[in-house]
Amino acid sequence: ADTALAACNDAADAVVNGATDLLDLARVLVRPIPNAAADARGQIQVSAAARGRVRIFRKAADAPEAPGSFTALDESGVLTAAELRAGVELAIEGRDVVRDAAVWNGLVDLTFTVTAGGTEVGTDTVQLRLAPLVTPSHLDAPEAVYATRVPWDREGSAAFLGDLQRAVRAAGVASFVELAGDDQWTQDVFEPAYMSMPGPGGVPRGMHVMLRSANFARRSAVGGASLREAGRVVFTQLRGRDVGGVVAFDPGHSDRMDTLNSFGNYETIPPYSFGGASYPLGRAFRGRTSAYFPDPVFTKMMESQGVQPPVYVDTSWLLVGHVDEVVAFIPANNERGWTIAAADPRGARAALEQLQREGSGNLPLFVGKAFLDERGREIAAQATVAEVLADEDVLTASNTAAVRIDRTLATLQAETGVRDDEIVKIPFLFTRSFGSAVAYQPGMVNGISLGKVFGMPRPHGPQRSARDLFESLVGQSFAQRGIDVQWIENWDVYHRMDGEVHCGSNTRRAIPRRGFW
């Protein structure tokens, strides 16, 4: 069924399917040869690597600009003498995305040869390129926000969705799309990307492309091997007019690494220039090591686009293993236009220690909340500042996390040039679960960026002067940068299940009019 969903697409037939489909085809003009001999013939040939990967349509002579005026050119590519005299307009369709640059890099050499009397009288070649898949960054304008209403926790899901919609309205985002299903990790199952090509007046013609996650279990919960079921939404609900869907995966990839295939582990560093290099479309940012890595087939496909060179960091120390657990990219008033927001366990500990020194060590965190233990049983989460600071497991995990985050930041800074004083620190502590690190307090860096609004998980920290300490600290820090923090309740449906706001939401962003490939 998954194969059939992906195979049923616009390029599967040799027909121009409507006016909007026609807009997606690149045009090439064969200029008229008024004096072409009666026995002259033209031939259009496609370079070997591109054969079967593109389809060429030709427009009927003197026909109006309409889908029905274009018919597929057969494999011979022959143009008649009459067509040569009149000139021919061609329209070229890509039949798939680039999946492996070693097999095909997306370049198409289109060769036009004219013969008369069995002798070649002229030839010309033009080169085109299939539009690459590009993932937008958090600096691109949000057009639609997605989240899932889950049936197994109606109250928790309603609280999350209500706060998220409030943030969406505050940001002026036009569309909020509520998905249905049992899988609440909306960020993880699809990644909005886009393809674009030059258009009239310098405005690109583009289409959104939803990437289905390569989450594949050889031993799935329903038995047998299968892709993650929630990812079908790419083809069943999201695909449509000007929205395509793509999937690529390796069924042999180890199940123990499957979490790295979720799209919380696929972010985009915004466009920048540094060290003599320019990245007008930004760069992919993922967690990967030589021994613990995401699906190689999907990775090869994205690297083969050739326009967003990846930056990889080690996330193997995290239980979930996603880059969005520790880093976000937010707008900034600097030459680059953005900066890094990063988890700051040291800052969280320092803030709590300051409270204790002020005699407020008895203030509680997580009032009325519950964690889930490793067997899924509820345990009371509420603890005082003093109790948290006396918890050696939390302090040890947080110290280790701080060192690991330092390494991630060092890699990012070396690649981007972001200075220490530009980094926005977001204080929260870590703990350990199943031997790996996970946010102990709600991981506030793991939020949704909506331009000048950032939707952040409500921290449920100690109340000082009727205000949450961590809401105050982070809210003020973001406000100084012109960003409004909207607090979102996500404890029950996300935090205690090792995720946060970003994990439970997804954003389609406008196709930018800058940074053309």
Question: How does this structure look, described?
Answer:
This protein has 517 residues and is an alpha+beta fold. The chain is 21% helix and 31% strand. The protein is built from 11 helices and 35 strands. The strands form 13 sheets. A 4-stranded antiparallel sheet has the order 1-6-3-4. A hairpin with a 2-residue loop joins β28 (430-433) and β29 (436-439). It is elongated, with a radius of gyration of 27 Å.
What labels would you give this structure?
single chain; 517 residues; four-stranded antiparallel sheet; elongated
How big is the Rg?
A: 27 Å
Mean pLDDT: 95
Quickly give the structural class. Answer: alpha+beta
The geometry reads as elongated
Cα end-to-end separation: 34 Å
Provide a count of the helices: 11
Per-chain topology:
Layout: H1 2-7, H2 19-23, E1 26-30, E2 41-46, E3 54-59, E4 70-72, E5 78-79, H3 81-86, E6 88-94, E7 107-116, E8 119-129, E9 142-149, H4 154-170, E10 175-180, H5 186-189, E11 190-197, E12 205-212, E13 216-217, E14 226-227, H6 233-238, E15 243-246, E16 266-269, E17 272-274, E18 277-279, E19 283-287, H7 296-303, E20 311-313, E21 327-331, E22 338-343, H8 345-357, E23 364-365, E24 370-372, E25 378-380, E26 383-384, H9 385-389, H10 392-416, E27 424-426, E28 430-433, E29 436-439, E30 448-450, E31 453-457, E32 463-464, E33 467-468, H11 469-479, E34 484-488, E35 505-509
